[in-house]
Amino acid sequence: MPPTLHLLTTAFLLLTVHFPATKAVADLPEFREAPAFRNGKECVKPNDDSIIHVAMTLDATYLRGSIAGVFSVLQHATCPENVEFHFLATGRRAELRRTVAATFPYLNFRLYHFDTNLVKGKISSSVRSALDQPLNYARIYLAELLPAAVRRIIYFDSDLILVDDVVKLWNTDLNSHVLAAPEYCHANFTYYFTPRFWSNPNPRFPAAFEGKSPCYFNTGVMVIDLDKWRAGRYTEKLERWMRVQKRYRIYELGSLPPFLLVFAGNVEGVEHRWNQHGLGGDNVEGLCRDLHPGPVSLLHWSGKGKPWLRLDSGTPCPLDGLWAPYDLFRHAPLFSDS
């Protein structure tokens, strides 16, 4: 074959090679800029003693919920400039940082990388795929990811809003406990573990609750003493149960059961008003639910149903309307100028 023809043939073959298509990355949602929230006259200047530290996760799927949650915290805080947010993300951190900064230009926040290798090989499949995502386990590693100067943290899930001043939750007296959260002692505790847990001859399993009065608590709202957490090496204790789960399959509800195994019966109780949870229904159907009896300081759409999805689909639950005023999502215009 003449050299020129050979070159043309090679070029043609290269042009006709089919390379695997790269998966398109969807753009992050866009949001309206929130108003500037300023401290009241009674607020002290932000300092180490007056800062309220709040941790949340950020990802593309739940970003709309996280933004609404931040907005609600700021709107109801007497001293919003004294609130510092600590966001954890696995990827797209530069984009997420720009989105948060553009939506809340005056927000005091830091963004941390959560390395998914920390939970590699430790996560087991659960009743809902969203519970299996590595970022769902980031709350276990707050003590390692946040600076040592952060000695106490409030952890919030990305599907909740506050309708009260966050300082009231921040001022919770943990007494001798590592963790504070609303407890629900009427819940059927056996539901959160498989029969294999309760029937296993390994004495370590029932010993987890020996001498305790364990109660269910939802890990989407927690006040944590990070100094005590670090000193007690609680991350290792949680990881230990995650490894047991991989071997014995003792639960099916994501990151919640390890917290129950380590902390249930040793939690500082908080008023139920600080976690009106379950508004997203169960983990299978996500049906509408009512509020629990009593006052409300925080509404939490834990469960399958999320308010932004139900609102967009035109089939909202009655309580989803309480979330809507905090939604800063920039919807596409109905009509084009052209």
From TrEMBL:
EC class (word): transferase
A single GO cellular-component term on record: Golgi apparatus
Topology of this chain in the membrane: Single-pass type II membrane protein
Protein name: Hexosyltransferase
Keywords attached to this entry: Glycoprotein, Glycosyltransferase, Membrane, Signal, Signal-anchor, Transferase, Transmembrane, Transmembrane helix
Pfam families cross-referenced by the UniProt entry: Glyco_transf_8 (PF01501)
EC number: 2.4.1.-
Family in the record: Belongs to the glycosyltransferase 8 family.
PANTHER family, sorted: GALACTURONOSYLTRANSFERASE-LIKE 3-RELATED, GLYCOSYLTRANSFERASE 8 DOMAIN-CONTAINING PROTEIN
GO terms assigned for molecular function: glycosyltransferase activity
Subcellular location(s) per record: Endomembrane system
Pathway the protein takes part in: Glycan metabolism; pectin biosynthesis
